[in-house]
């Protein structure tokens, strides 16, 4: 099931996405969910065309835990070694935007990069999750763009500003819940800028698996329903400029699209 979060007439709700097509092509409708999707819920039977609503970030995470250098070719393209243990960092909730929202080019950077990523959405409160239980704590998967101020990342060493600025974490367009860990571990993932392919890889190229990451993160902290893990980006990261449209597409999930604007 594809679960979207949206607003219509000033109201915010979750809905199950039905039909075929894309956000842009039409043909999709939302069956409004009674309640919240992390617990048992019912479909209301009230349906609205997706074209009539504004898509929001599909979840409102308490925290986004991101993993750096989880694809060997991406580490190499930036001149980095593959780390001995996963490199984890946070993106604040204020960085999260949805599909169709604008990425605001930060004033402190002159080198903004896209990073297409598979995002894991947590469905229940969990801590110290054993490997065999990881499947039980995952709600689903969505597309992410770990937008990075590359010059600031290199200059400041600590990544808080470079990867945590407002609008630096697009998520969406929805969460795909009917996907096993095995399926999510071998998906095509790509990024395009103005229709030109920049990144193309597979999630099977990840150094640390989805299970590895959930186990590693929950050794240290409690994850809550709606929290998000970004699993790293394949090679091919590159510049974004004001006016560009960047799209992250993941096989079996959908396409996350955002335009870059000047911060006003």
From TrEMBL:
What processes in GO biological process is this protein linked to? carboxylic acid metabolic process
User: What keywords is this UniProt entry annotated with?
Assistant: Isomerase, Metal-binding
Q: Which Pfam families match?
A: FAA_hydrolase, Rv2993c-like_N
Domain annotation Rv2993c-like N-terminal: ranges = 1-58
Please provide, alphabetically and separated by semicolons, the GO molecular function terms listed in this UniProt record.
acetylpyruvate hydrolase activity; isomerase activity; metal ion binding
Residue ranges occupied by any Fumarylacetoacetase-like C-terminal domain in the UniProt entry:
63-260
Q: What is this protein called?
A: 2-hydroxyhepta-2,4-diene-1,7-dioate isomerase
Source organism per entry reads Streptomyces gardneri
């Amino acid at each position: 099931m594809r679960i979207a979060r949206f607003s219509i007439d000033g109201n915010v709700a979750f809905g199950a996405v039905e039909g075929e097509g894309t956000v842009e092509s039409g043909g999709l409708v939302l069956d409004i969910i009674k309640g919240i999707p992390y617990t048992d819920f019912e479909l209301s039977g009230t349906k609205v065309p997706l074209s009539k609503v504004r898509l929001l970030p599909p979840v409102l995470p308490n925290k986004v835990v991101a993993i750096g250098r989880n694809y060997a070719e991406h580490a190499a393209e930036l001149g980095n070694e593959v780390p001995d243990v996963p490199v984890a960092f946070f993106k604040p909730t204020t960085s999260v935007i949805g599909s169709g929202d604008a990425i605001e080019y930060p004033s402190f950077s002159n080198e903004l990069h896209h990073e297409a990523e598979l995002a894991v959405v947590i469905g229940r409160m969990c801590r110290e999750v054993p490997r065999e239980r990881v499947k039980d704590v995952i709600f689903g998967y969505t597309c992410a763009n770990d937008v990075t101020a590359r010059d600031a990342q290199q200059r400041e060493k600590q990544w808080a500003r470079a990867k945590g600025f407002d609008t630096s974490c697009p998520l969406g367009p929805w969460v795909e819940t009917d996907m096993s860990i095995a399926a999510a571990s071998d998906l095509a993932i790509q990024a395009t800028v103005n229709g030109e392919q920049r990144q193309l890889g597979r999630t099977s190229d990840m150094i640390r698996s989805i299970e590895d990451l959930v186990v590693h993160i929950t050794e240290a902290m409690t994850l809550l329903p709606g929290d998000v893990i970004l699993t790293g980006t394949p090679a091919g990261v590159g510049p974004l400029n004001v006016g560009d449209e960047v799209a992250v597409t993941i096989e079996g999930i959908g396409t996350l699209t955002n335009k870059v604007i000047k911060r006003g």
